[in-house]
Please model this.
Amino acid sequence: MRRQIRGGRILDPFSGREEKADLLIEDGRIAAVGELPLEPCESVFDASGLVIAPGLVDVHVHFRDPGLTYKEDIETGALAAAAGGFTTVVCMANTKPAADCPEILEYVLKKGAGTGIRVLSCGAVTRGLKGQELTDMEALYRAGAAGFTDDGIPILDERILRQAMEEAARLDVPLSLHEEDPALIENNGINRGRVSRKLGIGGSPCEAEIRLVERDCRLALETGARVNIQHISTAGAVEAVRRAKSLGARVTAEASPHHFSLTEEAVLEYGTLAKMNPPLRTEADRRAVIRGLQDGTIDLIATDHAPHSAEEKGRPLTEAPSGIIGLETALALGITNLVEPGYISLMELMEKMSRNPARLYGLTYRGIAAGSPADLVIFDENEIWTAGEPLSKSSNSPFLGHRLKGRVRCTICGGEIVYKA
Ligand code: DOR
Model:
């Protein structure tokens, strides 16, 4: 299959290349980049006025498969990913049962292989995500685990976590950590502060995150493990990561679009659709996350795409599950809330949404270059659109109905069109 994409603006964070060029795709790979003659081929895509960038990589999604497929499954999750411009995703291990043994992991990878995009998965760090006994990380690694995480649940036992870090360091894979100390939390999903006081619920204080991030930065330094701090939300935790990096720890951090877009005030407007772990914080925290993105303390943007049913999100605030979907609005939120106000450039946004996450997970993917797999997102950076009905099975997002800037027009994975607006 030969395909040409003509007249777009290439924005490739892998090479730093930013120029108007045509692309020729052949047999799933990029065959040529540059000013190319119009040749007869099966498909010609006119990309004039559009940006062509490497397919986005999201290292933090919940596809709920197996076990919770009324919320999402691997196929609908992949459709949502493709609609958001993502060509590679990394699933979290908190399925039912958890991905704590090779059989579950193999199920996810096998089903993922039939979706058209690249679906990877982490293995669980502890059996049943119970925090008490390590999984056979080596067996999971051999079965294809891209990394390890108990995401959704923090690992409290320092002895277990140290062992996990030592094993992750030996296997040279990232260990991704959910950082919230439940000992300090009264009701999770809502920041302890002005809004929780107003609603008369306890909430989750900043210290719950900061305490564990400080501990784990220290352990990362001691063990040499590649530790990834997930969905960082507080100024104090950003500072802890900054310090750890300056001391030489192999620590990375991710920010979720909701944490750089909204504050705790959103809970008053959107109720359970603004409930997530860790919670939305204050404006000072939001700005600290943005500063972290600007100075490289925060390496990547990851959605924490966390589908829940309308019935579940319809429960009272203290009873509804935490989390929101994010794949289909992530790029637009980055453009609207980071690029448009001038905090980072569009190239820097691409670094945090494709290059850095690909590097974290050791993907061989090398962006837009001859010979590379043709994994691409084509988008209009200026188009204003209203976020509507998602392709995800769930629609738990506070951003539906919002006017956003930047719209995905087409996603190509392995040379095949997996989404077209
Ligand atoms: O809000 C969240 N929901 N945060 C997490 O880390 C897990 C996720 C889920 O699985 O629903």
User: Anything to note?
Assistant: DSSP finds 13 helices and 16 strands in the chain.
